[in-house]
């Protein structure tokens, strides 16, 4: 299974509210890798939410969710 396939499979297990966060983060990564002018992105509504969020907490929470799901503590 490729990294794309694994990532998509994980996203499909997330509740809709977290899928939106993942989508916003992907938008950020695409923007970051495109080399576009940061001032235009920083003025958007999505960027304000993303800048205010704490990705270290987000990633650790996502990892914990995945672990609990794998252990069967969460039913999908």
Describe the structure.
With 76 residues, the protein is mainly alpha-helical. The chain has one domain (3-70). Helix content is 78%, strand content 0%. It has helices at 3-13, 16-34, 38-42, 45-52, 55-70. The longest helix has 19 residues, at 16-34. The radius of gyration is 14 Å and the shape is globular.
User: Count of helices?
Assistant: 5
What's the number of structural domains? Answer: 1
What is the helix content? over 70%
The proportion of residues in beta strands is under 5%
The termini sit apart by: 21 Å
Number of strands: 0
Q: What structural category arises from helix and sheet content? A: mainly alpha
The dominant shape is globular
Query: How would you state the average pLDDT, rounded?
Result: 75
Rounded to an integer, what's the Rg over CA atoms?
A: 14 Å
Output the helix-strand order: HHHHH
Major sheet, described briefly?
A: none
Instruction: Report the uncertain regions.
Output: none
Write the layout of secondary structure elements.
Blueprint lengths: L2 H11 L2 H19 L3 H5 L2 H8 L2 H16 L6
């Amino acid at each position: 299974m490729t990294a794309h396939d694994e990532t998509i499979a994980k996203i499909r297990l997330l509740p809709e509210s977290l899928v939106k966060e993942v989508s916003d983060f992907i938008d950020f990564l695409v923007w970051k890798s495109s080399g576009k002018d940061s001032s235009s992105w920083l003025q958007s509504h999505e960027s304000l939410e993303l800048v205010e969020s704490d990705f270290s907490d987000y990633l650790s929470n996502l990892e914990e969710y995945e672990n609990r799901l794998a252990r069967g503590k969460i039913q999908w």
